[in-house]
Sequence to fold (639 residues):
Amino acid sequence: MNVAQKLISSHLAEGEMKAGNEIAVSIDQTLTQDATGTMAYLEFEAMGIPHVRTKVSVSYVDHNTLQSGFENADDHRFLQTIASKYGVFFSRPGNGICHQVHLERFARPGQTLLGSDSHTPNAGALGMLAIGAGGLNVALAMAGEPFWLVMPKVVKMNLKGSLKKGVSAKDIILDVLRQLSVKGGVGKIIEYTGEALKDLTVPERATITNMGAELGATSSVFPSDDQTRAFLKAQGREDDWVELVPDTDAVYDEEREVNLDTLAPLVAAPSSPDNIRTVQDVKGIPVKQVCIGSCVNSSYADLMVSAKILKGKKVHPDVSLTISPGSRQTLQMVSGNGALADLVSAGARILESTCGPCIGMGQSPPTGAVTLRTFNRNFPGRSGTPNDQSYLCSPVTASVSAITGAITDPAEVLNGPIVIPLPDRYIIDDAMIIPPSKEPEKVMVERGPNIKPFPVKSPLEESLTSRVIIKVGDNITTDDIMPAGAKILPLRSNIPAISEYVFSKIDSEFISRAKESDGGIVVGGNNYGQGSSREHAALAPMYLGIKVVFAKSFARIHKDNLINFGIIPLMLTPEIYNFLQEGRVVEFPSLAEEVKNADTITFIDKTSGKTFSSEHRLTQRQREIILAGGLLNYVKNKS
Ligand code: MIC
Ligand code: SF4
Fold:
């Protein structure tokens, strides 16, 4: 078996491990972050279970820390008190980005992790099966339920050779994105092997597994080997180490490779993480902002690389350079050894250890300007500036460019490779991780006025007549469906309020049409709903009365979220895609009956009387969830 199969088989709760089959895996650990966590804990609370049933569950606050009004502060109090009551560790705001802190302090080789954030596979760097999912799935995992997924294919990604001057782990994953595109990982686990692994540290591996999310992959995983052991030892957790390597005769569904010897520094050009160019291709483009940080590139080594490059230099007068350390541990390390002083003296603006600019929480770039970011997503407008020009790159490329004021090839300007050895011992101080209460019955959950009850849906109607109220193209992201940013993110606990922003960035009339027709139908292209795990991209449309989403294909997490909230995902042929223009009214005469017993759903165009049918591709379990009106109803009906 390969590593992915070993992890799945040791956690298999139901089903057969054959690619394409629906299987259930038991979950050892969960993580939530504040922007998805408030809903996840409201959902968990609604299940009436007194204590989480996982080995470890952690609630992080890292997205919404701007606190420009009472909303975020109220959410933080809610999250802290509910964590304490139900047996969840609480990582306080300021302690760091969930994926970075989880890697440092909790992730364990051989275990499973389900997180309500799409970059949860970051922990796959430690030989863990780590999967991103909607908040409701994470709530169920906290309740001890296994997680259902389609058994992925396993891709062997062979890393040959070794990294050369100016080239880093980020360039490896950008190369994989060049090979596979933002939909090439759907239904797959990417497993890394090869001679290059012996030199790749766990934080470097995490850069690679993190951005597997941009491939649409179910997860990404590295073996657990000597590098893993060294990292855990430096984190004072050597006892958590177990070896986990593929069998010598392991079989994979697909094989690919990246040759590190010939790899050049790369960027993802605007506005998709798979729009890959070599830095050589784009060098010389003037840059007005450089941002170093986010869960993909904010480790101790990432910041040290920047500090080494910037030491004794000054940031270009046209560039605003921001640094967001991934965790308090990282910040303590670089402040203790003087590297932070080098960054400050070069002119860097030091931000909190949070997601910050990655999710549009401040630091939107100037109009028309290029922003160069070490982040993982450059979806249109995500930075907060309309028509933004956001390039993604490694900390090495970002740092050399911050000095020159233009995109610069580090392979050309550096004298030699910059090697940052793994420290023998990281600074270990878990004071900002609060363990759950020993007297949970005494804990009062605090709820501010921003926390509104969870909306419930009724069972699926027998028939439906509805209007197409929006038609979009390929690769629509959850940022398009339910934008984030400093104005909208604080409303994550308030579905009625956040619903007002559905599709607002791409169609300002959408909401009025949805209200006029009391809901409606959404028509999308390929890879609909790529990106985030935010269930709000399904929950808010459900609240608006959307019952059906047609698409040529769906991103995995978003499709699950639609089903979880009782919205039917229907497959489109190119012919039906062309036919379903905005404004068309269609009738589904036997909706519930067909969801229950048929593989296709019939619908009739009200103007021409023409009849069509679309595949739903729902498993038996998913059919029942849709019929019940969503996963919460389904679970309640079962118990
Ligand atoms: C993101 O990177 O888009 C987020 C914000 O981390 C999301 C989660 C969210 O929307 O809260 C993700 O990737 O799942
Ligand atoms: Fe936070 Fe950005 Fe990572 Fe999402 S991708 S968890 S917003 S740092």
Summary: The chain has a mean pLDDT of 97.
